[in-house]
Amino acid sequence: MNFRILISLAAMVAATGQVYAQYSGDALRFSQTQFGSTARFKAVGAQTGVGGDLSSVGSNPAGLGLFTRSEFSLTPEFNSVTADAQYLGQSTMGQKDQVSLAHAAVVWNSTVSKPKGSQLNKGWISFNFGLGYNRTQAFGNNITFSGTNGVNSIADYFAELPAAEGYGAPSTLAAGSLPRMAYDNYLIGYDTNGQYYFPETDVNNIQTHNIDRTGSQSEINFAFGANYENKFYIGASLGISNIRYNSFSEYTEDGYNVTEDSDYVLSYRQSQITNGSGINLKVGTIFRPAPNVRLGATFQSPTWYSIDDSYGEKLDTRYAVSVDGATNYVNDEEIYDFTYRLRTPMKLSGGIGYFFNDQGFISADVDFVDYSTINFMGSSGNQGGDVINNNNRAVRDNFKSAVNYRVGAEYKLDKLMLRAGYGVQGNPYKNLTSPDLNVSTFSGGLGYRVNNYYIDLAYQNAGNNSDSRPYTLDNGTEPVATLKNIRHNVFLTVGTRF
């Protein structure tokens, strides 16, 4: 694994208009998790200062202290993601749908036994234990864009790679490297007098890029919450995290090769398969300064991951007429495996809930996350060398702290609950200030309770704008796809108290 891979992967991960090293882009992706929750708090959003819901298992564990009975719930999710792309004057739409498990949790209530005649609301009242599964982030997406480029070709990008990677004449190009593939496919040539590579392709080529992503991040939480005199609640949880991220992309270009005097169609395919596991800790408190007010705070430690990454690339070209005795040039896929350790940022959260007796509540949350503290380390026995150092430098140079906030409310109509919320995930990029980089979420939902059973339904709409580049050029003239990303989520929670 070497720095070449960081360059060739830039187009896969530079979705914001800046070229970041591959792993720093992935690390940011894996650091922007959400608290897992039931449909109730998917609709309300703000939960840190509220508690009393199974969402507390994966967010503020102090909220478990408010349970007076044991409880279990299950939350499946329907997820639909659309990406409206504008590229070279053409508009295309990509979409991906999936059904998954968003949340499942159980809490066991354990009330403290007190001597007969003692005050039940004095001292420690209960110690509750919870176990939960939370899907903290979904990666599924399909991005497609196409258009006719009258300025340049991906061969311009291939022609810049040899110098960027320290190669000289064609005899020095490493077997299996992307510059070698491009040279052997007659997409780039070499000027022996000027000692430079040049693209053999013409402009006005038809370019199409398709990116398909799957996978998710999830956590299993072991949580504890305690109640002191119905005023002060504390809790802690241990989280076992999991990452499964897959990205497959294919760039095709249909054009004319000036040097070889032939039409061509090229296919450049990239794949990334990433799996990881990690551990973190959450501690939290909720305080009732007045009967109708709850103040909450949560500290989430960094998550320490061990990650295995496998990247593959393949470049094939087909010509309309014979070029040096052949019309098809096919390369074997080159696979690059890399294992590294990652520390994501800690998260500090605060929240308030104001309750209108039995009529409902309003709540607000704020999170602070410093993405510049993301840190890479080599795996045991493999320090990673320049790859680790360059990605840590990319983190420091390109990421900053961000503030997330959420507001929401619930209103009760007898056994029916109405809910709504709004949230913003802050921009993590140091040198980019566009408000489009904030992710805004609108949500709403309903809940119904009867006896010991309940059912909740929630809808979330999360959207932001971003850019995607199929390749990059030193002079910045590469084509750019402007994406409008919208995620539609529907959550359904069924639960029971026992």
Please describe what this structure looks like.
This protein has 498 residues and is mainly β. The chain has a single domain, classed as Porin, CATH 2.40.160. The protein is 11% helix and 56% strand. The protein contains seven helices and 21 strands. A 14-stranded antiparallel beta barrel has the order 1-2-3-7-8-9-10-14-15-17-18-19-20-21. Strand 17 and strand 18 form a beta hairpin. It is elongated.
Brief digest:
With about 500 residues, the protein is mainly β.
Layout of SSEs?
Elements: H1 3-8, H2 10-13, H3 22-31, H4 39-44, E1 71-87, E2 90-108, E3 124-138, E4 141-149, H5 154-164, H6 178-184, E5 188-191, E6 196-199, E7 205-228, E8 232-257, E9 262-290, E10 293-300, E11 304-323, E12 326-329, E13 334-343, E14 347-355, E15 360-370, E16 375-378, H7 386-398, E17 401-413, E18 416-425, E19 439-450, E20 453-468, E21 481-497
Number of beta-strand segments: 21
Total number of distinct structural domains: 1
Radius of gyration: 27 Å
What would you call the structural class? mainly beta
Strand order of the largest sheet: 1-2-3-7-8-9-10-14-15-17-18-19-20-21
- Stretches where pLDDT falls below 50 for ≥5 residues? 1-21
Q: Number of DSSP helices?
A: 7
Helix content: 10-25%
The top level CATH class name: Mainly Beta
Mean of pLDDT: 93
Task: Give the helices and strands as they follow along the chain.
Answer: HHHHEEEEHHEEEEEEEEEEEEHEEEEE
CATH architecture: Beta Barrel
Fraction in beta strands: over 45%
Major sheet details: 14 strands, antiparallel, barrel
Question: Can you tell me the CATH topology?
Answer: Porin
